[in-house]
Amino acid sequence: MQEKLSGILRKTAQVFSGGGRGVMSSMSAAYTGSTAAASRTGPHPFWIIVRKEMSDIMLSWRYVILLALMLLTCGASLYTAISSIKTAVPTGEAVDSFLFLRLFTLSDGTIPSFITFVGFLGPLIGIALGFDAVNSERNKGTLSRMMAQPIHRDYVINAKFVAGISVIGILFFALGLLIMGLGLLTLGIPPTFEEFLRMIFFLMLSVVYIAFWLNLSIVFSVRFRQPATSALSCIALWIFFSMFYTMIIEMIAKGIAPVNPTHMDQLVNYQQTVQFLMRLSPGHLFNEATLTLLMPEVRTLSLFVPPEQTYGALPSPLSVGQSLLLVWPQLTGLIAAVLVCFMAAYMMFMRQEIRSR
Amino acid sequence: MEQSTNMQMDDVLDTKLDTAEMKQPIISIKDLTKMYDEHVAVNQLSLSIQEGEIFGLLGPNGAGKSTTILMMLGLTEPTSGTVRVCGLDSVRQPIAVKRRVGYLPDDIGFYEDMTGYDNLMYTARLNRIPELEARQRVDVMLQRVGLSEAAMKKASTYSRGMRQRLGLAEVLLKKPEVIILDEPTLGLDPEGVRELLLLIKALSRDEGITVLLSSHHLHQVQQICDRVGIFVKGELLVEGDVPSLAKGLYLEEALTLEVGVKPIDNELIEKLRSLPGVVRVDEQDGLLQIGCKEDISSELSRILIESGCSLFHLQMKQYGLDEIYHRYFEGGEPNAGEIKRNTP
C-alpha cells in the first residue's frame, strides 16, 4: 500500500520535473543570463536544487498528511457551504448575485467556511514545509557536502524558498479549482468572470500568506540547530497569533479606551489605534483581505466612515478593481512581511559558518 | 596587472623557499590567520604543497586543521593572510576553486532516502556535468571504489566504510586537481583504513591528483604521505617527510639498532662505543640498544662476528610519527620551538 502510494507520488514528481525541464532550463538561462553555457552543460544548479527539494517535499509523509488534511477541509467546507446555500437561495435575498463566491465564505455555523480553515491551517502548511529546511541538512551533514560543490551559498536557501512556495502554489490552485469544479457540478451555475478573478486573487493571497509562515519557519530553521526546537517556536508563534493576540489587543483596548469621550476625534483615534495594533498580526491582514476579495459588498475596512462619504452611495457591490484597491495595503503588508522574513533567513544563513556536523 | 604582480610575488617567494625547485606550488598558504572572537584557531600559517604530492596535516583534535581546510575552500573567510589553490584566490574565487578541488568532510552525510547512485547523480548535476556523461562517470567511480553492487541500495543502509568510499567517489566525480580529505580514516576498522588509504595512494599515483589529508592517526597516514606537517594549537610546528622530521627531532641519533649478541661484556660495549657514528650504547633486557647517526648495521655485524660473538638479533628501529608526535606534544612549547629551529 505504502509502496504503491510512494510509487504514484514518485511518478507524478517525475512527470512534473520532466515536464518542467523545458521551462526550468529556459528559466535557468534567465537566472545566469548565459544561454550558451546553460545549453552546453547540464541545467543550472539552482534549478537542480529546486527540483530535488520539490520532489523531496512531494514524496515525504508530511506532504501526504497535509494533503489529506486539506482535502478534508475542502470536503467539509464545501459540504457546509452547499447545504447553507440551498437554504439561503429560496429566501431570495441579494445573495444570488455572487452565489459562487459563497462556496468559500458560507458556513452553517457548525463547520467553519473555507476561508476560516485556510486562515487557521495555512500557517501549519507553511511551518510543516519549512521548519527543518536548513537545520536537518546541517545535522545530516549534507549541507557541508553541498557547499563543497561549485555553487553559491545562497542557492541553497533561495532554492528551498522557491521549492516550498511552488509546492504551496500548486497545492492551493489545485484545491481552489477543485472546489470551483465541484461547486459547478452541485450548483449548476457557472461563475462569472469577475467571480473567477476574485477567486484567483484569493488563491494568490493565500499563497502569499502561507509564504510568510514558510519563511518564518525557515528563519527558525537557520537559527536553531534542532528541528524540534524550530518547529515548536513556529507553532508557538502560530498559536500566539491565532489565539492570544486578539485577546491581548482586546485587553489593551479596554485599558486605553477614552472614559468620557467628549469629541468624535477621540473615539476615532482610539479605534484607529486598536485597528493598527490588530493589523500587526499577519492573520488579521489576511482575514481582512480575503473578506474584501470574496465579499464584494464589503465597501470599506475602516470602522468610521464620515456620513458625507456614505450619503448618497449606492449599496451596490464593488468591482474587482475597487476591491483590490481596498486590500492593496493589506497585500503590500503581507508581501513585506514575507520579504522581511526571507531577508532575515538569508542574512543569518550567509553569515553562518558551515562546518561538518 | 594585478595578476602579474601576484605572479612575481609568488616567484620571489618560491626562490626564497627552495632554489632547487622552481615549480609553482598547487596550494600556497601565506600567513593565514583565523580568529574566532578572542580565540586564535589558526595562527600565521604558511604552507606550500606541490602538484601530485600527498600531504598529511597532522594534529590533535581542535588544532585548527578543519578550519584551515574550510579556508582553502573559501567556506570560511580568513582573518588575515592569503590562500591560493590552483593559482586561484580562495576568498575571491571560491566557485572556481571548488570546481577544481574535491572535498570530503570528516563526517560525510548523504540523503538517506536516496540510493548511493542517486546521491552521486545529484552531485554530478550540481557540477553541471551533462546527464549522459554523468551516468558514465558515476558508474566508473562506483566501480573504482568498489560500490557497484550497492549502488542501488539506499544510503541509509551503508556502513561507515561504504559511506567513506561513496564520499571518495563523489569527490572524484568532478575530476579534481586537488582532493582534500578531512579525517578520512575516522571510525573505520583497520582493514577499512588500509583499503581506503591504498585507494587514495593509487588515485594520487594514477591520476596525478594532489592529496591533502588531515588526521590525528599518525601510523595510518605515515604509510602514504610524501610529506607531513604537524599542526598544534593553530600553528604548524614542523613540515617535511617522515625521515627528515625524525632527523630533526633526534639530531644526535637518527636511528637505533637493537642488537642481540652473546656474550655481552664491558669490553664489547666499549669497543662499540668507539665506532664512528655511534652515539650511545645501552644494555636493556639482554639486548644492546645502539643509537647511531646513520645506518652502520653491516659494519656492526662484521665487527661483532670478527670478535667471536654470536649474533642472533639485529633490528633497525626508525622513529615513527608516534615518537615525533609525542616529543612535540609532551615536550611543550619551548622544546617544540627549539626543535623547529633544528629542522633542516
Notes on the protein architecture:
The complex is a heterodimer of chains A (357) and B (344). Chain A has 357 residues and is an all-alpha fold. Chain A is built from 15 helices and no strands. The longest helix of chain A is centred in the middle third of the chain and has 34 residues, at 154-187. Residues 13-39 of chain A have low confidence and may be disordered. Chain B has 344 residues and is of the alpha/beta class. Chain B has twelve helices and 14 strands. Chain B has helices at 2-17, 65-72, 94-100, 116-126, 131-144, 160-173, 190-207, 218-224, 242-249, 266-273, 297-306, 321-342; strands spanning 27-36, 39-49, 54-58, 80-85, 88-89, 101-104, 178-182, 210-215, 227-232, 235-240, 255-262, 278-284, 287-292, 310-318. In chain B, the strands form three sheets. In chain B, strands 6-7-8-3-9-10 form a six-stranded mixed sheet, sandwiched between helices. Chain B has a four-stranded antiparallel sheet with strand order 2-1-4-5, covered by helices on one side. Chain B has a four-stranded antiparallel sheet with strand order 12-13-11-14. In chain B, a hairpin with a 2-residue loop joins strand 12 and strand 13. In chain B, helix 5 (131-144) packs across helix 6 (160-173) and helix 9 packs across helix 12. The longest helix of chain B has 22 residues, at 321-342. The chains are: A mainly alpha (357), B alpha/beta (344). At the A-B interface, helix 3 and helix 8 of A face helix 3 and helix 4 of B.
